[in-house]
Amino acid sequence: MTTSPSASVLRIERIQARILDIPTIRPHKLSFGAIQRQSPVIVQLWLSDGASGFGEAATIGGPSWNEESPESIRHAIDSYLAPAVIGQDAGRFEQLLQRMDLACKGNRFAKSAVEQAAIDAVARSLGLPVWQLLGGKQRESLPLAWTLASGDSAKDIEEAEKMLAARRHRIFKLKIGARAPQEDVAHVARIARALDGRASMTVDVNQAWDGATARRYLPEMIDAGVGLIEQPVAQWNEEALRQLTATLPHTALVMADETVCTPQDAMRLARHNACHVFSLKIAKHGGLLRTRAVADVARAADIGWYGGTMLETSVGSAASAHVFATLGGTHHNCELFGPQLLVDDIVEQQMVLSDFALQLPDGPGFGLTVVPERLDRFDRARQGLTPVHVDLGRASAQPA
Ligand SMILES: O=C(O)C[C@H]1C=CC(=O)O1
Ligand SMILES: [Mn+2]
């Protein structure tokens, strides 16, 4: 028996975007302020055959990390992106992205959530894991970093000791840049001394320093044992990033985060030898396919990749894990620990962490089951919460 081609087309019937508010297990302090809750936008997308899928776009501190906020993401989806893709063939992922680009410039976080939901829905409908639709798995697990960001050296050391004892994490990322750089050097050195030889350390400055400050203080951090330096200077300051990459001691690598979003950003950084590693994040790249496009540039340019997070729930973390599972090239581990930083999650069972590594998920779609009652419980509209504001605390004014 033959079926007509149109009968097998899976059309997008409906899309719903809602903002959830989920507290973090402790205040999480970054260079631009502290957060105590995450406000992910969760998208559900239904297909003509009744299957549905989920996607997520999480920001950090509303629009503090970049231009998009939970409110702008939901607005872009409801008003522009959903109308652009409803009725379309859900399986033509590239075409969906092109239609969203025509309807709406930028807004990559919002597009990423819609694209994830379409891919999850199609994969579920076909009974396949997403990694299979993306070219096939190349790895089963990735070592998983944890971020120490309580703002207090003693508390951070205690937290790191617990993670080591539980065999959960032995790679720690320290959030710095809110205090005077000398204080940050002392903080990093205290933690490095306490963990000496038992863990590796990254610092993430989240754009807080100018080039001169980075050139002055990063060598001291490298001396203390830091091996990976993430986004020490402003997103626009590629020249300073290039100088650091060329001149810092070779025991440390320079990683771009906020600076590398589009494949064109990746090409520019590659052409100028402006970093050693890209932090890949499905939200800032605009989805899973464009994450692969950025990873392709990394590989062609002899640049490594790191599996980054926007502190998503298990939905966005599993979506990221599926695409990371398909990537070749040199990797520098991952940090998909969002589910563990939140007090609760929206899925039945989280991805497995064992032996310091995240076991990459399997099963149809993203391989997780979302619990509708949990979506309802954390729904902002039901909780009656207002937009999240980052606690500016001691953070000084940052360059725009
Ligand atoms: O990397 C960032 O800039 C954002 C995020 C990722 C981990 C974390 O602690 O914060
Ligand atoms: Mn970062």
From TrEMBL:
This is Muconate cycloisomerase. Keywords: Aromatic hydrocarbons catabolism, Isomerase, Manganese, Metal-binding. Belongs to the mandelate racemase/muconate lactonizing enzyme family. SUPFAM superfamilies: Enolase C-terminal domain-like, Enolase N-terminal domain-like. Residues 154-251 form the Mandelate racemase/muconate lactonizing enzyme C-terminal domain. PANTHER family: O-SUCCINYLBENZOATE SYNTHASE, O-SUCCINYLBENZOATE SYNTHASE-RELATED. Pathway: Aromatic compound metabolism. Coiled coil: none annotated. InterPro entries: Chloromuconate_cycloisomerase, Enolase-like_C_sf, Enolase-like_N, Enolase_C-like, Mandel_Rmase/mucon_lact_enz_CS, Mandelate_racemase_C, Mandelate_racemase_N_dom. CDD domains: MLE (cd03318). Pfam families: MR_MLE_C, MR_MLE_N. GO terms for molecular function: chloromuconate cycloisomerase activity; manganese ion binding; muconate cycloisomerase activity; racemase and epimerase activity. Its cofactor is Mn(2+). PROSITE patterns: MR_MLE_1. Gene3D superfamilies: Enolase-like C-terminal domain (3.20.20.120), Enolase-like, N-terminal domain (3.30.390.10). One of its GO terms (biological process) is peptide metabolic process. The active site is at K175, E335.
